[in-house]
Design brief:
By secondary structure, the chain is an all-alpha fold. The protein is built from 51 helices and no strands.
Length: 793
Amino acid sequence: MVGNALVDTFAKLGLFHKAEQVFSSLLIQDAVSWNSLITGYIEHGYGAKAVECYEHMQDANVVPNLVTFICALKAFSSMGAPDKGLDTHCEIERLGLLQKESSFGNILVDMYAQGGWLSRAKEVFDKLPARNIVAWNALIAGCAEYGKGNDALKYYEEMKHLEIVPDAITVVSSLRSCGLIGALDKGREIHAEIERRGTFKYNQVVGNALIDFYAKCNMLGVAHEVFEGLVFRDVISWNMLIAGYVEHGFYEEALKYLDDMQLQGVYPDSITFIYSLKACNSEATVDKAKYIHTELERKNLLETEPVVGNALVDIYCKIGLLRRAHEVFDVLPARDHFSWNTLLAGYVEHGGYEDALDLFKFMQSQQVPPDEVTFVCGLKACASIKALFEGINMHVEIERRGLLVSNHPIGSSLIDMYGKCGVITKAKEVLDRLPLRDSISWNALLAGYTEQGSAEETLKCLGQMRLEGIPLNVPAVVCSLRACASIGSTSLSEGLLTEIKQKRFLERNYLVSSTLVDMCVKCGSVAKAREVFDQLLVRDVVSWNILMAGYAEIGHIDEALACFDQMQFEGVAPDAVTYINSLKTFATMGATEKGQEMHTEIVMKGLLEKELSLGNTMIFLYSKCGAVTMARQVFATLNVRDIVSWNTLLAGYAQVGQNGYLFSTFNSMVSHNVKPDVITFVIMLNACSRSSLFSTSQSYFEAMSKDYGVFPCLEHHSCMVDLFGRAGQLDEAAAIIEKMPISPNVVVWHSLLYACKSWGNVQVGNQAFTQAANIDDQDGASNVLSSRIQVES
């Protein structure tokens, strides 16, 4: 008796070490002593320990009594483990205890409902000889917990029909169900009943449930009114309100409530911080995110609440602070798949593909098996940087674990990876093996064919996709139009165009309309492009840019410039591409003054600092117009200069024959650690050729491969042939051609033929003509040049 009392006392106080010591010392461990221990574990939230204790009791052949069974069922219920309670339920049924003790029925309904076995809970409920408020609440709460809001409200109505008066638990579960399914009218009805009866007017839990209900239904004003009407506002009240504002995108207001609650002396808990972090989803809230981070560290929540740490990693990733995200990730005491995947997705989202793959490898080294989300992120990183080797390794692991046939997103990601890496046959193999081939997987293959320039395969793939009953969608339309554009045939797209119009893609999607205009332009039908363009309901800057570029391409300069004026008249602001197209048009016209006007406009908008390609085009304009001083000034203002910037300026100096500036700029480029490329040496050799600078030209030609690792191509050899040809050293020019490591084309032989004509060298001219004719016997230019050599000699 005394021993059992001590076990009971220590267990109730949570002193389980002492309770277990006394229990172990008992000569007789009967049902009472076991029950005391089990009850203590349940009361202090140690459900698993209570179940373990119950199982030991059974192993010890101690016969359970009513209290034991009740405690055991409560333990199974607290764990959400109805499967473990099945045997106990059967034993209770066998002993006929369900009819003798009404509380068994209520506890069984609760156990099954809390574990999600709702149909079994209803079976037990229906067999109860008498159903009290406890049983109804267990059933309604279970339905609410597992998203069965309609069922919960149906049971609520049945209960009321039987004139069973709802209590606070009933009301809370019913309001939660209304919030789940957006049953605003029903929730208002329950609210009105609460007000009418006045029973729960000052009930904190009911008040919080009302805030949650109205917030979920996007009635934030009413939620705030209920909140203001509460006599006492606890942290849950604030959390419900903050969560509501966050879920509906009112982030600024949510963060204001975070400040207000602290001013009113209510300390945020982990839930508050999680929702507040979700509200910090832009660069403007970086300081607030850092403040919350500091608070989390101060309260030691990063170590005790893994979900808070994950939320912090997630928000840093979303606002692009990846280094901070990784720092938080590194100090997390426990990292689950969500932690790894959040950081991995953050790197992929912000273009840190190498970092993503490094993290993927580190994850494997830590013996954490990648899940479906991990593989999808990893494959996306591989696709983005064409990391085929890493992608193949992932594929092997996916096959080993049987994920390809069981997980559709992984299959589509594999197709995308192989397509972007250029292994399109492998992408097709993966598609053929998928048990389900939907629009996403087909689109991935279509994109792969399009990216590789396999236009005919793209259209064939589209046909197969249609045969399988996959409806036309935006990505498929875009890929198909691009394929038609690369073939240069509008006739192939006629049927597609009809369907596009029928399904109103042009009205609904800017990308489709812009791509269609682009296709018409690339197929040489600018008039058709204009016709399509004029039919667009919304003409964005992309479609204007495509049309302008099309006009410029075919030399319709006036129309291109008219587009620039018209788009602004229609309220469409030019972007960097618009200005680039316009500047190229001015360069073609030699319109330096117009270019200067646009230059001023670009500088005023601050675009020159943000868009390097715009600066490079500005240099091109001035260089093309011979205004190399202006080109140099633009070059000097660029914050960043790439190889295109340097080459464009070099080409400008070469064009006007300012060799001194040309050579000094080349030297400056090298001293700035910018490596010359193929184009750089074409510019330098052409300039040397025009100025007959033999030794300088040979120095550059030799330095290409020796000093810079640039191996001479056809154009470089052609420059050298031109150099010797201009100087009349025709045998040497012919020797250069003979020694070329690559087969010369007709253009190279034409260069030699021109030189032979200039110098009247019939012998070398005949050799050059023979070689040119061997390459192209229909080449009229070679015949004309050869004839003139014969006549003029």
